[in-house]
């Protein structure tokens, strides 16, 4: 019994209405390009072709839905990372906000340089300086207290050049890839060198990525009690550093599956793309090249300032990408718009 | 335009058929009890009432779908843990399998006692002994090699009493809770003191829990190359111990959300239940009590052998559960069947 209501019994008017509805629906579907902010070209083509390959059941490289994992670096891949990583700007703001309770910072580095606004000194900060800043601004409090501080900061802080909240400085074309992959059964993960607790505060709202799908660098925590209630205290001790080889390590730890698609923009993403590419079948590996000083920044190897320490994309990585067929996305040529607010 | 086809235009026969279809569908639904292996009682009632509370939009304790997180201990909560944790049996089997390549084990503890089958000595093994066994049997190989060994072992190993594969010795009533919660929008996680890499091999097949929803104890890994291909080498170094306070720590690390429901059976689950219960609104906390020597084992505080070191459920935990309203599940009284194969 395929049709309960025989078509022949409907009157003509109803049939005409039904036909009209179907016609409009069909047109709407045809007009919606899931990657509408992408110019036609090799990058867009690589994405579409990859998705068609892994979702077409008859294709030898078909991938079962439960294995469709895509991982995205955040800084410089999903949002702006220049002139400085957003979380570093947050940390410097926190140093200034907490300075009144720490008179000793006026004379002790690295705090002294931060409080003096000495940009030349800050540019020379090494690992140990940042560890001290992180220890002073992001540890010694509960996970809940930290999240609330981040939440508050995000509502007021603005990017120095764009004068907009940092969470608006996300890349529209990358949001479209995420949605497109999710619509095709992929689970999208953020795998960031940035702080896991930091990114989880806004990941769902900004990227549609649930907190449990954010893998990032983390500090050790301690289970203890405050007023009889259990809390997790953030300790001044690194737990996982999710950068370079720490990315495949974090992916294996948190997901336990090898990604089929990985997106990065810098030397810190090299191992994630290599790990992804070492799997069998069709694997999409893409790198965002920042070559658009006008709309965003230019600091890539193909004509920018390749010696930046913030999101460095080295000549070596560029050569390896060419060599291994990793797709390099030119921000300037491949993206119709950079930010959602440009549309 | 709500109804394109006016009901009045359908002929009588079609209406009768439609009515019949709806009637049968309604009856089928009413007859399917999602917790059919549970006897009527306080435990079953607590589960059903909790699910109704958090899924009913008009309820003040309604929980949005993205926050519906449930965490389950594995050993003794989802499957049999006596006379010894399954993974410990695996490790002892591995010692025997690898002994021919390690003549020095014949005279070196703890291997000597394992190879001699000295149960009294093995019962006295301390943390350091087990660390040595774990180091010798589960590290110094790639994650992929380890998984393959586990996969192989599971196909042949049998439980000493039940003479069935360990993956068949899972608790039917707990599988029903998992399915029931998932059908109501929950994400179900395993949070085990056992090895994360070990459990991920079979979690999807056995419990319907994806590998990325298994949080467990883990060893550190190192990213390196074998024949030019990247691998993750398992190091003889603990990374996360997901037991006691390590459970809420692992939950925060991997999920970043507080569970609304948590299930355990032993002192090692105490903090997970406490952490769950410290959240606002309706939170379900349940403990499986092993009080059924006939169908499984009896080692709970309410009449068994409470001094077991395998899945110890102490008098203190029992008192705390009573005090805080954590629901204790009596295997003997609450479960119609224990294992799926009994049905």
Question: If you had to describe this structure to a student in words, what would you say it looks like?
Answer:
Two copies of one chain form a homodimer. The first copy, chain A, is of the alpha/beta class and 343 residues long. Chain A has helices at residues 12-31, 42-55, 86-98, 111-116, 119-123, 127-138, 143-156, 172-183, 196-200, 203-207, 246-254, 270-277, 315-324, 331-334, and strands at 69-72, 187-195, 214-226, 229-240, 261-264, 284-289, 327-330. The longest helix of chain A is centred in the first third of the chain and has 20 residues, at 12-31. The N and C termini of chain A lie far apart (49 Å). Mean pLDDT of chain A is 92; it is low at 1-10. The A-B interface holds A 1, 4-5, 9-11, 14, 17-18, 66, 143, 187, 196-197, 200, 204, 210-212, 214, 218, 221-223, 229-230, 232, 239, 245, 248-249, 252-257, 271, 274-275, 278 and B 1, 4-5, 9-11, 14, 17-18, 66, 143, 187, 196-197, 200, 204, 210-212, 214, 218, 221-223, 229-230, 232, 239, 245, 248-249, 252-257, 271, 274-275, 278.
Range of helix content of chain A: 25-40%
Poorly predicted runs of chain A = 1-10
Distance between the first and last residues' Cα of chain A: 49 Å
- Number-wise, the strands of chain A total 7
Q: Oligomeric form of this entry?
A: homodimer
What characteristics describe this protein?
343 residues, alpha/beta, 7 strands, globular, homodimer, 14 helices
SSE order and pairing:
The structure is a homodimer of 343-residue chains.
Chain A: H1 12-31, H2 42-55, E1 69-72, H3 86-98, H4 111-116, H5 119-123, H6 127-138, H7 143-156, H8 172-183, E2 187-195, H9 196-200, H10 203-207, E3 214-226, E4 229-240, H11 246-254, E5 261-264, H12 270-277, E6 284-289, H13 315-324, E7 327-330, H14 331-334
Helix pairs in contact in A: 3-6, 11-12
């Amino acid at each position: 019994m395929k049709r309960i209501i025989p078509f022949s019994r409907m009157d003509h008017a109803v049939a005409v209405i039904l036909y009209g509805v179907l016609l409009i629906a069909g047109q709407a579907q045809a007009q919606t390009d899931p990657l509408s902010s992408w110019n036609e070209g090799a990058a867009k083509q690589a994405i579409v072709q990859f998705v068609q390959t892994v979702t077409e059941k008859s294709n030898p490289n078909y991938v079962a839905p439960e294995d469709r994992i895509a991982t995205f670096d955040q800084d410089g891949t999903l949002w702006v990372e220049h002139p400085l990583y957003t979380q570093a700007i947050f940390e410097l703001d926190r140093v200034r906000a907490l300075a009144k309770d720490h008179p000793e910072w006026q004379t002790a580095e690295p705090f002294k340089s931060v409080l003096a606004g000495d940009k030349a000194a800050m540019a020379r900060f090494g690992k140990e300086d940042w560890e001290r800043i992180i220890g002073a601004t992001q540890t010694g409090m509960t996970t809940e207290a930290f999240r609330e501080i981040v939440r508050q900061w995000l509502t007021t802080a603005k990017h120095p050049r764009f004068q907009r909240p940092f969470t608006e400085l996300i890349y529209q074309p990358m949001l479209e890839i995420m949605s497109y992959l999710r619509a095709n059964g992929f689970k999208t993960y953020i795998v960031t060198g940035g702080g896991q607790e930091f990114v989880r505060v806004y990941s769902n709202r900004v990227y549609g990525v649930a907190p449990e799908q954010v893998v990032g660098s983390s500090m050790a925590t301690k289970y203890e009690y405050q007023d009889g209630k259990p809390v997790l205290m953030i300790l001044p001790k690194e737990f996982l550093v999710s950068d370079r080889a720490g990315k495949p390590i974090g992916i294996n730890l948190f997901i336990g599956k090898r990604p089929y698609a990985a997106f990065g923009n810098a030397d810190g993403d090299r191992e994630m793309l290599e790990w992804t590419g070492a799997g069998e079948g069709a694997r999409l590996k893409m790198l965002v090249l920042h070559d658009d000083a006008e709309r965003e920044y230019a600091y890539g190897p193909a004509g920018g300032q390749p010696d930046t320490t913030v999101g460095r994309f080295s000549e070596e990585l560029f050569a390896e990408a060419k060599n291994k067929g990793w797709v390099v996305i030119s921000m300037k040529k491949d993206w119709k718009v950079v930010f959602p607010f440009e549309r």
